[in-house]
């Protein structure tokens, strides 16, 4: 009844909000919506368990058995792969149809069809990024692989079989609230979701921001603020001896940058800067059992429904369990009876911006190598709910689509800004995961990765035979130093990418002597690697903490690895708080300042839920960044502050650095003074927070304010006050709206693989289901549940709660 009361209250609230705020025709018809036999009441807590046990669908060759366990994970048993992926599509849609469709609408720039012109700017940006263009190129490549096309088509048929059997009462609640119907699923939608993930993990480039910074501050300061590398880092692969190949050479181009003027802003256009992950594998020499253990926790937005959908896929061709992406066939992160794998974002610069010179306002032609070349125009119709369609013309050049021009976040004069993105190229990432699902050994793993392009990932691997490995895989252009770090001159074709790093020369580790491999979005490799490697935002703390712990541990157990995934040690604070405290020890403090100062002296640097020190440090550091980098604020151009690591390095080593002078004061501040000012402002911030929240005590879990947000931003369906430790740059990378979206630990025992997992949410996308967020308490408390990896459909388990049979009509 608790869930039923929640959904009644929330649904009525959302419906009333919709009626009051939506244009006529957009709000749900309340009579139909409130109908007790067909409306939102049908989305109450019993929906997941009233499915028919016998289901019929066109397109199956043989019956398929689907067994559900006690956390609503489907275990699909099919007699062939075609039926297997059909059933995966059907079952996934049964739980997550609205999420699948909403996310692909977002990817393709079609949200305005659902919510009207409030989404127009977002949709225009997606169209101008060439998201559909990228997905179309993916489908073009898929046509060349009959086997993979068959997999995607089977999945698509399964989704559509479920859609075709829906009545209004069966629709997910969001369809009823937003008053629209699901449409046919297509191969293009599968591709769109993959490209959406690519955009989320690659488009946090800073070319335009760096161009502005270079022009504003000059080369001397730019190099101090934004260095390519920093000292003391721990790359994914460290060791010059293995680079025993002849690298591909490219010519350095002089005068390639376009830094003659400030460039366009990008308001609210970036993915979350913390999109990343942790993964590692420890070899049997370091574990108590003698078996390898593999771990992965991808860090993404904390959304509802969950980003991931757990599933087991069993056929005569293989048996695999793991986390899938709703809308895409196969398992993305998981394991089978011989191997396990996981991913983290590789953070490589695969997006370059080019300044395009148009001949005139018609944008029919642009200059290239001294000639005027025709643009290829793509007219995008954006359907606006409640009003007439909006038409946007996107110009395509040899570089790619022109995102910014005089019609969208205006560029300067006759210039446009086009971007070259590797995700626009034909690719076959689906092939990689299909092969990983069926892999049996290290060579199979390497073969699977050869098909992978974007977003570049650090693929961790472990096998029951004892092998462990890490390979950084993607399609990487060979770049000369700083190529693509700034806006490039688009009038010369010589500034294009000239070659790509061969897959065999991508960074990799296989059974290293130290007994483990790991990655956490840090520098990929040491400076001995013969290619220029660059990204604007490498991780500089999580990776070192993980490696410190793994180095120190012996006789490792799965429980040890769970503890490490939930580790809340704040390495930024451990390395820098003592320095900060020394700068304020001579400061004349009031009573509140003294209390906070003494609390920080006693803090052990762990960001646990119930500690105050973590909140005090965060408030202080936030104020410090604002004061130190005030030169970046209030500008009409796009700029970005230096990294935390660089900030502290400058504070410690260059006390009189010009940027420490606070612009809003007549005095000239140095490092010590600005740290003292930030401390006092941080104390005031804490006191204001206590007053606003009505809190007597400060606890990190409250101050951080972690919450899960519904994909459609429907506030009654958000879950607030999630009590979990960690933060940015901590192994448990849980911040306000971002964190570990799936935690998995796998022990590769030859006698039978054992695995544990958890994610913040649940299997069901139905807000009225007890399986909508039933896993959240486990995740919140750092707990896991055993993953039921069945070997046959006849296997007995007390965790099985019911089953379904899909069969041909």
TrEMBL record:
Coiled-coil stretches: none
Superkingdom per UniProt: Bacteria
Cofactor names: Ca(2+)
Chain residues that bind Ca(2+): 349, 351-352
Keywords attached to this entry: Calcium, Hydrolase, Metal-binding, Zymogen
Gene Ontology molecular function, alphabetical: hydrolase activity, acting on carbon-nitrogen (but not peptide) bonds, in linear amides; metal ion binding
Keyword Protein biosynthesis: no
Residues annotated as catalytic: 277 (nucleophile)
Transmembrane regions listed in the UniProt entry: none
EC numbers: 3.5.1.-
Enzyme class: hydrolase
Entry annotated with the keyword Calcium: yes
Cofactor stoichiometry and binding remark: Binds 1 Ca(2+) ion per dimer.
GO biological process: antibiotic biosynthetic process
Family: Belongs to the peptidase S45 family.
Protein name: Penicillin acylase family protein
């Amino acid at each position: 009844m608790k869930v039923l009361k929640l959904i009644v209250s929330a649904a009525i609230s959302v419906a009333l909000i919709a009626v009051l705020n939506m244009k006529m025709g957009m709000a749900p018809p309340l009579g139909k919506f409130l109908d007790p036999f067909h409306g939102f009441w049908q989305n109450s807590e019993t929906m997941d368990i009233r499915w028919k046990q016998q289901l019929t669908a066109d397109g199956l060759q043989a019956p398929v058995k689907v067994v559900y366990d006690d956390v609503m994970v489907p275990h699909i048993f099919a007699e062939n792969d075609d039926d297997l992926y059909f059933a995966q599509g059907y079952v996934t849609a049964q739980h997550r149809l609205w999420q699948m469709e909403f996310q692909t609408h977002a990817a393709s720039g079609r949200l305005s069809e659902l919510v009207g012109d409030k989404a127009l700017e977002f949709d225009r940006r997606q169209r101008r990024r060439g998201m559909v263009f990228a997905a179309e190129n993916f489908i073009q490549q898929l046509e060349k692989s009959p086997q993979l096309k068959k997999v995607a088509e089977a999945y698509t048929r399964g989704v559509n079989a479920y859609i075709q059997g829906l009545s209004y009462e069966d629709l997910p609640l969001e369809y009823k609230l937003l008053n629209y119907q699901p449409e046919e699923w297509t191969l293009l939608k599968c591709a769109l979701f993959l490209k959406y993930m690519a955009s989320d993990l690659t488009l946090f480039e800073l070319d335009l921001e760096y161009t502005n910074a270079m022009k504003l501050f000059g080369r001397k300061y730019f190099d101090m603020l934004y260095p390519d590398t920093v000292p003391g880092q721990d790359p994914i692969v460290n060791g010059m001896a293995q680079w025993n190949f002849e690298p591909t050479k490219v010519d350095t181009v002089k005068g390639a940058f376009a830094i003659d003027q400030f460039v366009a802003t990008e308001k609210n256009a970036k993915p979350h800067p913390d999109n990343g992950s942790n993964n590692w594998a420890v070899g049997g020499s370091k574990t108590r059992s003698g078996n390898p253990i593999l771990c992965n926790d991808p860090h993404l937005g904390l959304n509802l429904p969950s980003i991931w959908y757990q599933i087991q896929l069993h056929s005569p061709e293989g048996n695999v369990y793991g986390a899938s992406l709703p809308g895409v066939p196969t398992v993305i992160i998981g394991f089978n009876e011989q191997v396990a794998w996981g991913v983290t974002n590789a953070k490589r610069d695969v997006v370059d911006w080019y300044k395009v010179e148009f001949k005139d306002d018609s944008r029919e032609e642009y200059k290239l190598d001294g000639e005027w070349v025709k643009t290829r125009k793509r007219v995008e119709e954006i359907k606006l709910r409640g009003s007439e369609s909006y038409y946007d013309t996107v110009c395509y050049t040899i570089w790619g689509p022109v995102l910014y021009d005089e019609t969208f976040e205006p560029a300067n004069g006759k210039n446009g800004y086009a971007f070259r993105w590797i995700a626009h190229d034909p690719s076959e990432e689906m092939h990689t995961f299909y092969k990983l699902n069926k892999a049996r050994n290290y060579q199979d793993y390497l073969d699977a990765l050869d098909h992978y392009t974007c977003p570049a990932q650090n693929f961790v691997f472990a096998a029951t035979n004892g092998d462990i490995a890490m390979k950084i895989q993607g399609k990487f252009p060979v770049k000369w130093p700083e190529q693509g770090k700034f806006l490039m001159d688009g009038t010369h074709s010589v500034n294009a990418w000239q070659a790509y790093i061969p897959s065999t020369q991508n960074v990799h580790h296989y059974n290293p002597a130290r007994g483990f491999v790991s990655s956490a979005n840090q520098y990929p490799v040491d400076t001995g690697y013969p290619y220029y490697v660059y990204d604007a935002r490498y991780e500089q703390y999580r990776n070192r903490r993980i490696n410190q712990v793994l180095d120190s541990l012996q006789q490792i157990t799965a429980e040890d690895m769970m503890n490490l995934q939930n580790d809340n040690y704040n390495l930024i604070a451990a390395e820098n708080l003592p320095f900060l405290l020394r700068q304020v020890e001579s400061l004349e403090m009031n009573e509140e300042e003294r209390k906070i100062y003494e609390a920080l002296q006693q803090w052990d640097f762990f960001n646990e839920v119930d500690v105050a020190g973590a909140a005090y440090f965060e408030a202080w550091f936030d104020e410090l960044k604002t004061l130190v980098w005030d030169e970046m604020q209030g500008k009409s151009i796009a700029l970005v502050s230096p990294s935390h690591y660089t900030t502290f390095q400058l504070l410690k080593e260059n006390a009189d650095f010009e940027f420490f002078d606070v612009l809003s004061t007549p005095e000239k501040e140095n490092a010590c003074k600005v740290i003292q000012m930030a401390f006092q402002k941080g104390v005031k911030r804490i006191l204001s927070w206590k007053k606003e929240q009505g809190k007597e005590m400060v606890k990190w879990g409250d101050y951080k304010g972690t919450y899960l947000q519904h994909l459609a931003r429907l506030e009654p369906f958000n879950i607030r006050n999630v009590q979990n430790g960690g933060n940015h740059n901590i192994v448990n990378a849980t911040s306000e709206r971002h964190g570990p979206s799936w935690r998995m630990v796998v022990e590769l025992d030859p006698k039978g693989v054992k695995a544990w997992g958890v994610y913040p949410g649940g299997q069901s996308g139905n807000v009225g289901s007890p399986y909508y967020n039933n896993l959240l308490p486990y995740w919140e408390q750092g707990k896991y549940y055993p993953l039921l990896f069945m070997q046959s459909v006849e296997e007995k388990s007390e965790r099985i709660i019911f089953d379904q049979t899909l069969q041909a009509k």
